[in-house]
Write a structure and sequence with these properties.
single chain; 2 strands
């Protein structure tokens, strides 16, 4: 095993830790790790990310459920429209994007570059929603209508399908802001949504790309170990600190990706 592979597996462990701690962010690290360190094409990297994050999140869901931090009703409500959008995006929309979006002189905006920049842009939006302080006067907000949740699920599902993310970094703020869940319960609930979306999205990819199963399964196994550790550590950290720390982490990664793609 060379140094690059070793760093890749260390990164896989960190992916799991992040998922266990904050219910999202695994794909935020997985995609750049596979693209910039292990030199995978972004389309393949996003597909692998879906599998890694999906399996790791499944384990995390079980761990969080034992602690009472999973709301299955809300989770499944978000999941249904999301997984439809994720599958269709990965099966038809991503393969249909042209290799070169447009060119101007010697400059060409490629499919791979577009995916990574869009990925970073969505991360920026998610980070701002988590960092900013939300006012709460102690009143209980009414649950929103199901059709609104359905539309939100379709939108987030399409976005996560395009960027190959499990969507935890989008679902956690959505569950906090839209479903009014406490941070720790939002983290746990997001994992069941991420599990369903990621694995169904990956099924769409299996039909269009070749998979290196030995590497993918070993990378995933290490991530699963990480998520078990992350879930254990999360009980010692407050939800408020998790929320803000999550936001700053996403912000830093988004800036890094934009820098790498435009430099």
């Amino acid at each position: 095993m060379d140094v690059t592979q070793l760093l890749g597996y260390i990164g896989a462990l960190i992916v799991g830790l992040i998922l266990g701690l904050i219910g999202g962010g695994g794909s935020i690290l997985t995609v750049p790790l596979l693209v910039y360190l292990l030199a995978y094409n972004p389309v393949i990297a996003t597909a692998y990310s879906l599998f890694v994050v999906g399996i790791s999140s499944m384990v995390g869901t079980y761990q969080k459920h034992k602690k009472g931090f999973v709301d299955f009703k809300i989770g499944l409500t978000f999941s249904f429209p999301s997984f439809i959008a994720v599958y269709l995006s990965r099966r038809y929309l991503v393969p249909g994007i042209p290799d070169t979006i447009f060119s101007f002189g010697d400059y060409a905006l490629t499919k791979e570059m577009s995916i990574m920049i869009f990925f970073a842009f969505i991360m920026l939006l998610a980070s701002f929603s988590m960092i900013k302080k939300t006012k709460n006067n102690g009143t209980t907000l009414k649950p929103q209508s199901y059709y609104i949740t359905f539309i939100q699920g379709l939108i987030i599902g399409t976005v996560t399908g395009l960027i190959g993310a499990g969507g935890g970094f989008l679902y956690v703020p959505a569950l906090v802001v839209w479903a009014n869940l406490p941070m720790k319960k939002a983290v746990g609930t997001s994992l069941i949504i991420v599990t369903i979306n990621s694995l169904i999205g990956f099924i769409g990819d299996v039909q269009t790309i070749d998979i290196e199963w030995v590497f993918l399964l070993s990378f995933t196994l290490i991530s699963v170990i990480g998520i078990i550790l992350g879930v254990y550590i999360s009980k010692f950290i407050s939800g408020k600190k998790l929320k803000k720390g999550f936001g700053f982490f996403i912000l830093i990664m988004a800036i890094y990706i934009i820098y790498k793609e435009l430099s």
